[in-house]
Fold this sequence. Notes:
The chain is mostly helical. The chain contains ten helices and no strands.
Amino acid sequence: MMPTRIEAEKILEEAEQCNPGSWGNHSRVAAHCAEKIAELCEELDAEKAYILGLLHDIGRKFGVRHLGHVSDGYTYMMSLGYDEVAKICLTHSFNNQTTKEYIGKFDVSDEELNLIKNTLAKVDMSDYDRLIQLCDSLAGSEGVLDIEERMGDVKQRYGYYPQEKWDSNIRLKKYFEEKAGKDIYEIVDKNF
């Protein structure tokens, strides 16, 4: 189940009031990218892609957390009955379905970590999961970024960026360029 576009926008606005920050605009940019790419992919619904992109980081509503935002978002969306969004809240940080590639602090309880690991192990990744992973890597809070610059920025801030995740993001970019038949930066209007 999914919220409507209007409901999703309201959920994000309310979340930003709880924890203001650049993450809200990052989510809007990710939603923009997801919608534009999905418009050119026959089997994807652009409206659904927009909603998933908009709410992928909704766990940030509950405060400044690193890995914790994943479990917070998953649990919150499940509590609202939005299981498709909950899945994206979980998968957007794990291109290769492993917490070993997570960049940031493991600021979760053992229970939260088990929830993430156990649920992630059972997930069947779809093109929506892959699309939001890509868009998360393209979206800055001020607009669309070059994927390698964004990953380089993350590497500089955190001191590392797992090579497997880096390679996976580049593969996702190529994958969606082939599906859409167009350069990603043209699709998402890099000057957005």
